[in-house]
Amino acid sequence: MKTVFFKSIAFFVLMITTIQFAQAQSLKRVEIPLPSNNSELFTIPINEQGVLVLSQVNKTNFVLSRFDTNLDQVWSINGTIDGNLDYVKHSYDGKSLYLLFSRYRSNVYEVIKVNIGPGFIEKYQIMSVDRMEVSDFQAINSSVFIAGMVNNQPVILFTNLDERKTKVLPSALKSQAEIQSMELDTSTAIVNVTYAVGTRGKNYQLVVKSFDEDGKQISQVVMNPDNEFAMMNGKLNLLSDSTEVMFGTYGHKSSIGSSRGPTSQGIYFSKLTDNEITDLKFHSFTEFKNFFNFMGERQKEKQEKKIQDKKNKGEDLRLDYRLLVHDIIKQDDKYIMVAEAFYADYRYNNYNPFGMYNGIGSPYSSFYNPYRWGYGYYGLYSPFSSYYSPWGWGNRYYGNQQTFDGWIYTHAIVAAFDEKGNLLWDNSIEMKDVKEQKLSEKVKASIKGDEITLSYSNKGQIFTKIIKGDTILEDTQSSKIGTQIEGDKVKQTTSDAIDYWYKNYFIASGYQRITNDSEGGRRNVFYMNKISF
User: Fold this and answer.
1) Handedness of CA 391, 397, 402, 405 (dihedral sign)
2) Phi and psi angles of residue 466, each rounded to the nearest 5 degrees, phi first
3) pLDDT per residue over 356-409, tens digit each?
4) Among 175, 316, 320, 351, which residue's beta carbon has the most beta carbons within 10 A?
């Protein structure tokens, strides 16, 4: 084990105070100059301990800097990684931060544990399964879980960093399976792994296995389909030692195994006691009052007419959406759910510059490292789950006519359910011209009593909408993320995002190209703005 203690490094930071948005107030701004156009930086909020910024220096060096809640720098560390490994993902357990570095389809992994308070790091090397394609990573109390695929089979590696012991956790699944997600519940120190099992609707199951911090499986939930529908994804929430609730989307079984991949018809709610389902409710999006508000008026009218025509025949209009379901929020006696609708966009080319079969150098070749820095093209969701994949079921490569060109978001919904899973109300926010290369949660919800502020950033602007139940208190408005330096002109903003930080504070970040004739011309920066709603 190597220990690197706190080092102070030269770090030019521009700080600006109090910028007003329409519904948001920017309390402070930090700018970090970018040494090159290829520089990649990542913000990692760590609640009231501040925010960390991870930046790549070169293939073997990185810088990790901690800022407090006032965005004043506390410490900065120069770190090294071995063997040209790439940053894949981080995990924060409330006390320590863990960074995973790996090389595509390698058996070498490095985990760097960051001790937040004093500012030093510990480095651990893991040698394990060869040719594993990593899809997810979680860590808690020096226990590390790495999920991925080996020969098209799901694998979970468990390592105790203190004991230097690694093992493969048994899956014992009856059919071909995909790891859909791996989530950490820091309040219970439990890791929940969701599998989509089966390649056709007739043998499909959604299985959630829960592991404690020793890598021991402590429970398993199996969601079987009915005659028509299957559960496509799910978020498991522990209410007591014996009671859990699970939210997610459901869809037609016939979409499972299709070239397009599984899609969703609506939201399901399930209550489980001792891993057995006691309550199960389905809510089609056709029941939602505001789900189709993102459409134009004429398109919405046509959709509502189709829905009514089907209802008159005793049927439900078939829908084929895909949604990112956020963590469920428990508020008093109700559950609040936020989810974003998305679809894959493609470009069609007559000429493939990489040659037949997407040769070496193609961003879609199996020889190409998909991570880059920070999870490559995949985002926060498993690239090997067909629900979150642009390639549909089982095919992760393109023909020479089609190229994946990013994820388009159409809108986000917010809905409340009572403790029995009955739909109380729903609302939505349109997401205009939002396209991302990495699939991640864009919309954030800030809750104050009965009022909810929905917000997201796109192309240098923050969009906000204030709702109360199914009522709109303030419709969507936008405000530019300004720099507040006289003469500044923001020419371009990319990779902008808003992340929840602590209490009612959020952090907005991204890259900007700014010109200012009186301040030395042009500057390229990575910015962070502390935001309150």
Assistant:
1) positive
2) -110, 130
3) 333 333 333 332 334 445 544 444 455 557 888 776 655 554 455 678 888 999
4) 316
How far is 470 from 467, CA to CA, in rounded Å?
7
Q: If we measure between CA atoms, which residue out of 193, 190, 159 comes closest to residue 177?
A: 193
Q: What gap in Å lies between CA 330 and CA 334, rounded to an integer?
A: 6
Strands 143-150 and 153-160: antiparallel
Q: What residues have CB less than 8 Å from 478, skipping those under 6 apart? A: 22, 461, 462, 463, 464
Cα–Cα nearest to 210, from 238, 231, 240, 187: 238
Q: How far is the C-alpha of 458 from the C-alpha of 531, rounded, in Å?
A: 15
| Phi, psi for 118 (deg, rounded to 5) | -75, -20
Paired tokens of 167: 């093992």
Three-class DSSP category at 310: helix
CA distances from 195 to 188, 205, 210, 340, 343 (A): 21, 8, 11, 21, 21
Going 226 to 229 to 232 to 237, the CA torsion angle's sign is: negative
What is the DSSP secondary-structure string of 122-160?
A: EEEEEEEEEEEEEEEEEEETTEEEEEEEETTEEEEEEEE
Sequence-distant (6+) residues with CB within 8 A of 455 are 23, 24, 443, 444, 446, 462, 463, 464, 465, 498, 506, 533
pLDDT in tens, 198-251: 888 888 999 999 999 999 999 999 999 888 899 999 998 887 777 889 999 999
Helix-strand-coil split of the chain, %, nearest 5: 5, 55, 35
- Bridge pairing between strands 451-458 and 25-33: unpaired
Three-state SS for 438?
coil
| Spatial separation of the C-alpha atoms in residues 49 and 45, rounded to whole Å | 8
Question: Whole-prediction pTM value?
Answer: 0.86
The residue among 277, 265, 349 whose CA lies nearest residue 310 is 265
∠ Cα 315 317 322 (to 5°): 140
Rounded to an integer, what distance in angstroms lies between the CA atom of residue 178 and that of residue 205?
A: 11
Closest CA to 215 of 148, 274, 157: 157
Four-residue CA torsion sign, 283, 320, 259, 178:
negative
Token pair recorded at residue 447 = 């809750």
Pick from 219, 99, 74, 217: nearest CA to 161: 99
3-state secondary structure of 107: strand
**Can you say how many angstroms the Cα of residue 223 is from the centroid of all Cα atoms in its chain?**
23
Residue-level length of the chain: 533
53 and 528 Cβ atoms separated by less than 8 Å: yes
In the numeric block, which tokens belong to residue 52? Answer: 């960390």
Query: If DSSP codes are grouped into helix, strand and coil, which group holds residue 299?
Result: helix
Three-state DSSP class for residue 458:
strand
Rounded distance between C-alpha atoms, residue 296 and residue 300, angstroms: 6
Q: Report yes or no: 50 and 65 within 8 Å, Cβ to Cβ.
A: no
Q: Give the count of beta carbons closer than 10 Å to the beta carbon of residue 63.
A: 18
Interatomic CA distance for residues 464 and 246, integer angstroms: 28
